[in-house]
């Protein structure tokens, strides 16, 4: 009788998580099957068993990342029940939700760069932006939704890349100005 085969039902998920960790540390250019397998603590052969190639692994990893960020965004907007709460939710998304972990900034920029270079990855960023806009659309008209989505993106990037102190009150002021009705 053969020795019991070692089963590892979480192996695929560990590989995806390891891929995101490697990308956060080394960038897409530094992500190799060997490095990811080492990070995931799996045999190198597991990489090709679970993923047809690096593109399939990158798709899975960036879809997971985009879904995680979009889930936080949707949860924040879904909790808002009044216009004031929706405005506050937008501010909190910028201040608290988008880049909750330091590697989120790097991962965001890596998927943006990959999508800019390789159109087949734009489905990930497009789906991510669509989910954000649907969440905003619950509270705001279509034009405001587009502008708020861009404001959120821009302010989170500026805040993350600014050297020195950042005034959180300016974020609230920017959202207030955008939502101000004449």
Description:
This protein has 182 residues and is mainly alpha-helical. It has a single domain (11-179), classed as Tetracycline Repressor, domain 2. Helix content is 74%, strand content 0%. The chain has helices at 11-26, 33-40, 45-50, 54-79, 83-97, 102-117, 122-137, 142-161, 168-179. Helix 4 (54-79) runs antiparallel to helix 5 (83-97) and helix 5 runs parallel beside helix 8. The longest helix is centred in the middle third of the chain and has 26 residues, at 54-79.
Averaged pLDDT: 92
The CATH architecture classification is Orthogonal Bundle
In CATH's first tier, which class applies?
Answer: Mainly Alpha
Radius of gyration: 19 Å
Helix content: over 70%
Q: List how many beta strands DSSP finds.
A: 0
Spans with pLDDT under 50 lasting ≥5 residues? 1-5
Structural class: mainly alpha
Q: How would the global form be characterised?
A: elongated
What is the CATH third-level topology name? Tetracycline Repressor, domain 2
Overall structural domain count:
1
Distance between the termini: 80 Å
The CATH superfamily turns out to be: Tetracycline Repressor, domain 2
Strand content: under 5%
Secondary-structure element string: HHHHHHHHH
| Largest β sheet strand count, sense and barrel closure | none
Number of helices: 9
DNA-binding region: 32-51
Domain HTH tetR-type: 9-69
Keywords: DNA-binding, Transcription, Transcription regulation
InterPro entries: Homeodomain-like_sf, HTH_TetR, Tet_transcr_reg_TetR-rel_C_sf, TetR_C_31
What attributes characterize this protein structure?
disordered N terminus; HTH_TetR; Tetracycline Repressor, domain 2; mainly alpha; 182 residues; 74% helix; 9 helices; elongated
